[in-house]
Design a protein that fits this description.
The structure holds two protein chains of two kinds. Chain A is mainly alpha-helical. Chain A is 58% helix and 6% strand. Classes of the chains: A mainly alpha, B mainly alpha.
């Protein structure tokens, strides 16, 4: 498996995708814990607060799996070491900057 | 039921913290060959490579546990925090949920670079990935603890 898919590339794409989705608040589905409903569209206030976290996880996993499987391993082999952690660190910084709204 | 799940989640996190902290110290402060044995040197002298798969499995289980109890936080504890105007507490919990998933994304690279632990050229990557995971787990543990305590007090 590791011969074809780069774990470092998967990590890079997963963390970057998750950060973008969380910051932009893009979601492919909404989960409503109060009514335990999953919906592709926003429901009314009666359904309670919506959660997007599960959708971000699923989306990041699918995007990272597909893209890291499509990119030939030899293309990224020399970049594996920086790919393993630099995009993740950038994602952490982006998330922290985005979440500073709670502290001002 | 929620409390049982929360306790299981916390207990898994405690084991994870222990394993990752051992691994970080054994990686950054490896034991010299002729080191005098005491609590501190024993703490650093674990076979850190042997922890890797266990840490990965524990991490996934802890995140699954967190994912199951998360809706209860949204419906109950978060509302309390909103009503009290405790935005910074909500903020640190938001960061916790992001860190948990970013850590999940790091696991494939973490396992891969630990599987090749004899390769000295990967040492820096291994160190960075392990430290990031440890920081995530420590942060998430304390934030979860603080939020649970605030919810319990108020």
């Amino acid at each position: 498996m590791r011969k074809w898919i780069s774990p470092a590339l998967f990590t890079a794409i997963f963390t970057a995708t998750y950060a973008v989705l969380a910051i932009k608040d893009w979601t492919i589905f909404f989960y409503y814990p109060l009514t335990q409903e999953v919906s592709r569209t926003r429901l009314t206030v009666k359904s309670g607060p919506s959660m997007h976290w599960y959708a971000w996880i699923v989306t990041a996993f699918v995007v990272a799996s597909v893209l890291s499987a499509l990119v030939p391993r030899r293309w990224t082999k020399s970049l594996d070491r920086p790919l393993a952690w630099i995009p993740a660190v950038l994602a952490i910084i982006a998330i922290l900057v985005f979440e500073k709204k709670w502290f001002v | 039921m929620t409390l049982t799940l929360l306790m299981a989640h916390v207990l898994l996190a405690v084991v994870l913290i222990g394993a990752l902290t051992h691994q970080v110290f054994s990686l950054w402060k490896p034991l010299p060959a002729q080191a005098h044995r005491n609590l501190w040197t024993s703490f650093r002298s674990v076979r850190s490579m042997a922890y890797t798969k266990g840490i990965a499995v524990l991490y996934v289980l802890t995140v699954i546990g967190g994912g199951i109890v998360y809706p209860f936080y949204v419906l109950d504890a978060k509302q309390t925090l909103v009503n009290m105007g405790l935005d910074p507490v909500i903020g640190v919990f938001e960061i916790k949920e992001h860190f948990a998933i970013l850590g999940l994304g790091l696991l494939p690279a973490y396992v891969y670079y630990w599987a090749n632990a004899e390769n000295a050229r990967d040492l820096l990557v291994r160190r960075i990935l392990t430290v990031i995971l440890a920081l995530f787990v420590w942060w998430n543990f304390w934030v979860g603890h603080i939020v649970t305590t605030i919810r319990g007090v108020f």
